[in-house]
């Protein structure tokens, strides 16, 4: 072998590597062709008569089907395995030295359980969403599953073998919200309003203007039925909603666009600082956050498709200088793929980098390394970002629910899942007080329940406080300084019921049935019944309604009566009823008894057996069901009983009749052997009061005729 190396294939770090070696002597004597490999040896390392020992073999990485080679497998910011499909993919910031080369699935392919890259649509669907986990027995999950269950002790029902239902449940620390998604427990709360807004339980009943466009119209308040009310956010007093949907002071409604006040390619904006699009060339292709502003700035801005250049002139976007960035910023061809904190609010928080679909990258300016964007949009050194205050820490939180305060800590907010933002919030166990300071929750004054309010002097409340006080004139005592007792009292229009809850005044006189009480309950979950007890319901958060419900320990039966839960086991099937003494039922119970004489035996006290019997005019057929008497039919081929005999076709058989059948057995104890299921035999037995004559022809004779 003259100068030619024997090369082959090697497997290096799970990458199929084809080692290509060339004959430099032959290569030097042959001119290059169009088919020359791009992986050629450099001249400094080529083999030559002057340099016979130097060789350079070139490794051309080749990957299995549907895969491609990557110089850094860790920073491929898209799903790589079937189980990652539709999940957010974190992208760590890595130095070049920490990269691992290897093969990854091509775009549109994911690695299956066998390690092969297959088309995404061929992946076995993941049955559970993010923040969910699969359970083989969803009924046996002994923790809250829904936001509506939060804070309520959860029972751990006993689930019989074979009754388990498989399915997806929320992971530990997550609860199912109104939209069906599992969200962190802290996000199970109710909507809050934006700046200059306030919550109203009946937006139709607000007797004042709500929009700038309504100012010249007369105000009117029509009669609104409670059932027609819709709750929601409305503008505060002396504020109106402008054309952008923001609640602004009434006097700000007067400023309107005047024609010809803006330069060419500009237009007037009543709230320029709320526009969620680039306005200057330096912001071109930059991802901008949409701020919630408290005071709008009215001024001329560039029209859509135009940006303001360094001279202050609005020019078409394509005429902006290329890649011009402000101080401490740098241009990025793909701003979505910058996997590091970009804002002061993200400092020290987790950074997630979404999967980037090829062709969707946006170029723009980002803060340089070790710089972060402050609240004014300027990139400043990291150490200049504001720090958190006393008893605060940086967390990634959503805008809804609002941060817990002394005033809202007992309010349940209903919020849709939304992106979180890193910001300073109170540490666990601390809440904001009226001074916006984080204090221990137990130091909050006056925690009150639903329909209650805090009073600095409960004795001085000059109105009825309890349902029992309703209609009785109330005295207003004089309370000496220092004698006042702080506490919670019912809000105006509410009185305290016997269960301690404040209810609307008109419900004080409402009477409930036996074993019932008045409570404020949600429509879901439904009231516990014998039929649905032990079932876990998935319910969205909703307002409660006062109604009569079963007291604790009682459940609704089929007759809509509240009974003790243990009495549910006494419930019978269709066309049946419960009897405390089945032997004392003086009517036929089985189709086989139809048309036969009926006897009512005397029952010794203590011998009664409770159980289910057929209702009047119903008989039990051979399948064990109670059917109307007229539906009892004699089957073809059925044995016809002789005189004083009947056919035993139900639970008792010839070998399992626990009553005397022969005269010789009369007044004797009769053993009842255990009969294996399916071994019963059908046949004729003597009617009640008759015995088989075992001294004669074994016919059934009256008891008095037995010798």
Automatic annotation (TrEMBL):
Signal peptide (UniProt feature, chain positions): 1-28
An example Gene Ontology molecular-function term: peptidase inhibitor activity
Domain TIL: 63-123, 128-188, 193-253, 262-320, 325-385, 388-444, 448-508, 572-632
Pfam families xrefs: TIL (PF01826)
Compositionally biased spans, kind Polar residues: 29-38
Chain ranges passing through the membrane: none
Superkingdom assignment: Eukaryota
Record Gene3D superfamilies: Laminin
Keywords: Disulfide bond, Protease inhibitor, Signal
Record region (Disordered): 29-53
PANTHER family in the cross-refs: ACCESSORY GLAND PROTEIN ACP62F-RELATED, RIDDLE
Protein name: TIL domain-containing protein
The organism of origin for this protein: Heliothis virescens (Tobacco budworm moth)
